Structure formats: structure tokens, C-alpha cells
Amino acid sequence: xxxxxxxxxxxxxxxxxxxxxxxxxxLLSLLLGILAVIAFVLVSSKGLYNQYYRYNANPxxxxxxxxxxxxxxxxxxxxxxxxVRPSKSASSVKQASQIVPAVQPSKKVSVKQQIVQKTSFxxxxxxxxxxxxxxxxxxxxxxxxLMMIKMEGEISRGNEVNYKSVASYVSLKYFVxxxxxxxxxxxxxxxxxxxxxxxxxIPLFPFLFLYCVILFKFIVPGIMFDNKGVFSSIxxxxxxxxxxxxxxxxxFLVPGMLVFFIMSIVMLLGFILQAVFQxxxxxxxxxxxxxxxxxxxxxxxLPWLVAVFLEQYQDLKLRYDRKQELLLEKLSQWQKNKV
Length: 339
Description:
By secondary structure, the protein is mainly alpha-helical. Helix 7 crosses helix 10.
């Protein structure tokens, strides 16, 4: 790539890179999905899904459950009342009065109260070994993600790559990338903890956090493709994004909104399934179903997100180099005029 492109050009080139690299990186994306499934099963089996995904509080399911329970009570009342033959005798009236009240609906509980009861905190049963397993799985996912970035980056440059060479290169840069992530995370925490001391800046906290996240977005490609170090990769990422923040934000917003739309449809489908099949489909099974579908979607979409990431990095890098060339030309011209 030798020309600066607009937002549409970056997105269209990312689609071309996605088609070109999909066969190579699909196995890596699938491996990421498998690791995510294992981590998900480990988390959900320990009761954490009750804390983070309140599927038992599905309003649709509670409304449907209340409707069916009241309907069943009415049918039972009508059935029992029809068994009593009409008679004016005291015994028959007494018999009817004994049958009908016995099947009256119980005390009414509002849907809001049911939601509060359903969303009561369930303490996760997770120990040190489970936490260590989760850390190991997340570190493996980070390693596979770096392999995907490296492979797609080399494919975009027209280089021939294989899994062995990519894995050996990522092994050399893995701890540098991890350290850069930890340092940038600590910098964000320190910056925002200091912001919390200023009361009038607290409402701006989410926007400032998003702004800083976009600034630190290109730490990994700086290390993987330009041999930057831990701190130089952070400063290089800030220099690339500085002055192009809104352009970078919009480039990432478009695929992010698409993925969010797909995930919202999957979650809505899970709510509907739990509401319709409340008797045979528990909240946990709905949770499992929706999350597995989400992981499958991410396996297919993730290579494109990486392609968008790399194409935007190349575009920002080209813009930064052009800017530096213009500054050097102005400096040399200024020196000539001074002489």
C-alpha cells in the first residue's frame, strides 16, 4: 500500500484481506473459539454465569410463566367446578365450596418482584486452581491472537507464511507484547485514579477511557512489525493515532456495530427460546446455547476484525510517515532560507 485512503477504502481493503487470508487464519480463529469454549465451560460450571449473565431474570420468560400458571389454575377450577352436579342441597353446596377454593391461585407476585428474586446473588464456587486454569487459557488465547495478527500482516504484505515460522516469531515477541499491555493498563489505571480525585471530571470518565484505549490500540503491530519495545510501542501508537482519532474511531465503529447487531439478535433469540420453552429449557441451557452461537459467530468474524485493525494501522503509518516527510522538507527549506 502506497496511497493514503479514506475510511471506505480502509474497510474495502480489509474485506479483500479477509478473503485472501481466511483459509490460512481460520484454524487459528477456530482454536481461539475452542479455547473460549473451554474457558466458558469452566466459568459457567462454577456458577459464575448467575453473576454475570442474569438469564434467570429473563422478563419474557417470567411473563410467559405467569401467564401459563394462571391459565392452568383457571382450567383446573373450571374442571373441578364442572364435576359438581347442580343441587340445592346443603351437602352439594358444601362440597363445591370445598373444591373451588382449594385450587384458587396463590398470592400474586409481580414480575418485578420475581426478577428481584431470580437475580439474587449466587456466590461463585471457584477456587485457586480454577483461576489458574483461566489465566492459562487467556494467555494461550493471547498467544493465538498474536499469531493471527502476524499471519494476516504478512499476507497483506504479500509474503509467504506458515504456522511454524509465525509461531517461532510470536514466541520471541510474546512477552514484550504482554509487558506492553500490562504497562499500558497500569498507565490507564493510574491516570483514571487521579481523575477520580477531580469530582467534575467523573462524568467524563467513560469518554476519556475510550479516548485512551483508541490511543493505545496499535501497541501490538508496532512490536510485531516495526520491532518496537515496550515503551516505544506505546509512544508510537499514540503518535499514529494523534490527529487521526476520529478517523480511527469510525473505522472500528462500523464493524463493531455490525458485530453488536448480530450478537443482539442471538441474545434476543435466547430470550425468546427461554420464554417459549420455559418448562423444558432452563436458564442455564439458554445461557449455554446463546454463548456457543456467539462464539461460532466470532470465529467467522474475528479474521475480518483483525484485517480492519491491520489495514487501519498501515494507513495511519503511511499518514505519519508523510507528515514526517513534510516536516523535514519544511525544516530543510527553513534552513536554506536562513543561510
